[in-house]
Each structure stands twice: as structure tokens, then as C-alpha cells.
């Protein structure tokens, strides 16, 4: 799976780690859909219950994908050689976003410009 738009210098090993996270989420999703199907066959449920369970599952998958993407973007910025020339890590804060999929929690890295006396903060 090669993506030519990925920033040069991004480690292929770390790119594969990101892909592994996404694939693991997809495998977990598939396993849970099979479990829902088993519940449908063994316990029975109406279409409303089925739809609610599938929606809950797809929302969770979406949240996990967004969290993985945000974390990967943060890592790419942190490792970028151009960023390191002028910007240094100041801190990492935990953040929460409320989305249509539910709350998404992630860590965001803040940077300060090392070449300015009164630093300004750059954030992802």
C-alpha cells in the first residue's frame, strides 16, 4: 500500500505501525459485527435494535480512526526536520473533541519558536 503523497522522510516502519493500528481496528470491527450477527441468530432482535448496535459499532470505529489519524499527524510534525530547525516542543496536552461520532480524545503537541525572544505557540 504505497501513498506517494506521504511526506518525504516519514519512516516506513512508523507508517506501517500506523497502518497496523488501522488494520487492527478493522479486524476488531469485523469480529464485533460477527458477534452481533450471532446475537441476532441466537437471541433475536428487531431491525431497530440491529441498526442501533451497528451504529454504535461504526461510531466507535470512526472515533478510533480519527484518533489514530490525529496521533499520526502529530508524530509526523514532531519528527519533521524543517520543524526542528525553528520550533521546539513546549508541551503535550490531552484534548477532547465532541463530534457526531462521539467524544474523541488525543494528545496534542505544542511548539515554541526557538528563534523569537517572546515565543509564539504553534499547535497541530
Describe the protein in words.
By secondary structure, the protein is α+β, with helices and mostly antiparallel strands. It has one domain. Helix content is about 55%, strand content about 25%. The chain has 3 helices and 3 strands; from the N terminus they run αααβββ. It is elongated. The model is unreliable at about 1-5 (pLDDT under 50).
Distance N to C terminus: 26 Å
Report the C-alpha radius of gyration, rounded: 20 Å
Work out the helix count.
3
Averaged pLDDT? 84
Number of domains: 1
Strand-pairing-aware structural class: alpha+beta
Percentage of residues in strands? 15-25%
Global outline: elongated
Helix content: 55-70%
Entry summary:
The chain contains three helices and three strands; from the N terminus they run H-H-H-E-E-E.
Which secondary structure elements does this structure contain, and how are they paired or packed?
Layout: H1 12-42, H2 47-79, H3 81-86, E1 87-99, E2 102-113, E3 121-123
Antiparallel strand pairs: 1-2, 2-3
Q: What descriptors fit this protein?
A:
alpha+beta, 23% strand, 3 helices, 124 residues, 3-stranded antiparallel beta sheet, single chain
Amino acid at each position: 500500500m504505497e501513498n506517494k503523497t506521504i511526506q518525504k522522510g516519514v519512516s516506513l516502519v512508523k507508517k506501517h505501525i500506523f497502518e497496523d493500528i488501522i488494520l487492527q481496528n478493522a479486524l476488531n470491527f469485523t469480529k464485533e459485527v460477527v458477534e452481533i450477527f450471532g446475537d441476532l441468530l441466537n437471541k433475536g432482535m428487531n431491525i431497530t435494535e440491529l441498526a442501533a448496535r451497528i451504529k454504535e459499532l461504526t461510531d466507535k470505529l470512526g472515533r478510533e480512526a480519527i484518533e489514530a489519524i490525529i496521533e499520526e499527524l502529530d508524530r509526523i510534525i514532531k519528527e519533521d526536520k524543517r520543524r526542528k530547525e525553528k520550533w521546539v516542543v513546549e508541551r503535550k496536552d490531552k484534548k477532547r473533541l465532541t463530534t457526531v461520532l462521539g467524544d474523541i480524545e488525543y494528545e496534542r503537541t505544542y511548539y515554541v519558536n526557538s528563534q523569537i525572544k517572546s515565543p509564539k505557540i504553534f499547535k497541530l
